[in-house]
Amino acid sequence: MIRSKLRLGTAVLAASALGLASCASPDEGGEAADVPGITDTTVTVGTHQPLTGPAAAGYSTISPATKAYFDYVNDKGGINGRTIEYIVKDDGYNPANTQTAVREMVLQDEVFALVGGLGTPPHSAVLDFVNDNEVPDLFVASGSPTWNQPEDYPYTYGFMVDYPTESRILATYAQEEFPEATYCFFGQDDDFGEEFQTGLEAVLGEDGLADAQVYSTANTDIAAQISSMKEAGCEVNFLATINGFSAQAVGTAAKLGYFPQWMASSAGGDFNTLSGYLGENTDKLLQGFVSANYLPGYSDTEDEWTAKFAEINEEYNAGAPFDGNTIFGMSIGYLFVEALQAAGENPTRESLMEALESGDVTGNGHAPLGFGGDSHRGYTGAMLTRVDNGVQSYFGTPYVVTGTEAEEYTVEEYTGERTAMPADGLPE
Amino acid sequence: MSVTKRYLLAAAAAVLLIGLTFIIPSFTSYQLAIVCAYLCGIAGLTLLTGAGGQLSLGQAALMAAGAYSYALSANAMADAGAEGPLLLLVPLAAAVFGAAVLGLAVGLAAGRLHGPYLAGFTMALVVALPAVTSTFSSVLGGDQGLWITVEKRPTALRGIVSTEAWQAWLAVICSVLVLTLLANLLHGRFGRHLRAVRDNPVAAALAGINPARTKITAFVISSAAAGMGGGLLAYTTQSAGPGAYSLVFSLFLLMAAVVGGIGSLTGAVWGALLLVALPHLISTATSRLELSADLSQRLDGNLAVAVFGAVLILVVLLAPQGIQGLLVRAGGRLRPPPSASLPPRSTEPAPPSPATAPSRIPAPSGQLPATPKGQ
Q1: What CATH number was assigned to the domain covering residues A42-160+301-379?
Q2: Which domains can be identified in chain B, with CATH numbers?
Q3: Which long-range contacts (CB under 8 A, 24 or more apart) does A128-135 make?
Q4: What pTM does this model have?
Q5: Which residues of A touch B24 (CB under 8 A)?
């Protein structure tokens, strides 16, 4: 009896494994020089995004924007005759799902590269895997400096301005603008908050922060933390928070009759997203709200990039709400197309990496990219935005943070010009 | 003799599956590793809920205990400069041990509970997991979880087997080990005690079995199996975080055990396969269909849950003994000889197995003093 059971179990496992094996999609054929994900007419890339789950509310609109930009490029004839196929896998912001999703894209779908995988915890889980498999892992949508380790992870490139950079810029501005104020900090209870706080203290001094509070995403009640900041007499509060918690902080403070100056990271300072949480009093609550950014501003109708992206959004994204996430998604799309263009007529994974290392890929940010042989850092600076009467717009000049190690970063004003938009928003 | 044969067959199964990894693509090897990891957790439930009648919704929390034990010990060892097989085996042992210790603590309380109370209590464990990890975030890494330094495949094997195949090897060996041990227990004296306690605790106590001790032991064994599963998941995915061990996952494990056939370990194999294959097949199917972006975004992730729910309802209505029960019935129709499954909820004390049958009536010495009830 036992024997037959075990035998049956073995047979079941074996048969099913074979069944799974036969499901694997066969080669599509027609590959140019046998580069994974590249055929004579297509380039296949993939990404993992939180389309469901806790982070979906803030970020699920990014990949449709990237897709819209790729569709636009494809309609214009693609890149060297190849259209871009963009696979989006939902991981629900859960690293366990990311593991499966990315393995499926790399091992089974054989993508050429990963583009814009979102989130520090999800992407950390696949960092070793993609580098072991030598898959270009481009423009990770997270501000963690983890992605800038060319020695250990030669295939991974950052995109967003990283937390050490952003925090130093905000702190420098605060010192210039509010030299006598009491500074405090409210941040997420992980690397995001930790590295942000370290950066702030590097500029403001060891005891430059009168109060530092943290929150966990599992607990949305942050009244205790905000009360403590109010008690401590905080006047300028730095936020290392995701959008939902930036809104929560501002709203909770207002309920306590407390209206400090807020200075938020670009990860949690998008006006449209915040207003979605705050409702009808948004304009009053966010008056004077400062946050860092580095991409074209969505309310900046004078900006040629914004105008082009808005047009693409109308035509290829079914007129979805146009906000910071849309610009973010399209900017990632643009940067990839630019890199692919630079990788030559018949791109390989090697030529793509070389193109990025050459430093010729410039993107569309207000600060320069840090790409080079010994740096895979994304945008190396940022510009500040302020909300005035319900409109978030840039002011002042961009800052750039130079230095190779976070410990020796120095903040300077950036005087270089942003790259002009090529005709039709298509890289040449 | 039958035990020896069981070992031989287990070894044959392991060799066959390991051989299979040379044929299948590496993504499928990865899926095989995940199936094996889930299998450990589900098989634990088969013992606890199927044979023991204790309904636990907390298996994911126990797997998480295994994963975190693996992560903490592996990272500590890597910091201390350990490498080689030690960095692989010690954390796995720690995973089993850590989950077993938690299982003992839970079991001590659970031994006094039954039915919905036990289900509620074990569910609370899973629900509390994110709060625990964020309260002790300096050690457990909060919502982000822990990133694990793992011992990769031996250098001698690089170029011959992929990382995924190596992960599958490890998972196959460990899960076959777990399954064999559980099969031994279920078919031995402990299994009979367990079923006796399940079917009638009073009668079992009269027969000299200590129901509380049996229940607690079942909990510890089931937790240890879950811990092995968690350890394997931690190794394969190189991370341990609360997101991977959610309430939904915990319910999925129980569903898999029920759909596969809660009474038998072979049923657990079916359940584990279904748990991995179903979402994959569904997402493959939907990606082949020409759906609008909006609709496919809605379906992604959600459709699998719906289908799983439907399958569960159908199985409970049409085949209460799960896939395995169906197969056994189908097999029985083809060839009449003796049926080959543990009859769940049978009133007989045990399906006598020739090797151990003689010792079945009197309780072994040392157990009597603990059960004075009714004597």
Answers
A1: 3.40.50.2300
A2: 2-355 (1.10.3470)
A3: A128/B238, A129/A99, A129/A102, A129/A103, A129/B163, A129/B238, A130/A102, A130/A106, A130/A155, A130/A156, A131/A155, A131/A156, A132/B163, A133/A106, A133/A107, A134/A349, A135/A36, A135/A106, A135/A111, A135/A349
A4: 0.78
A5: 17-18, 20-21, 24
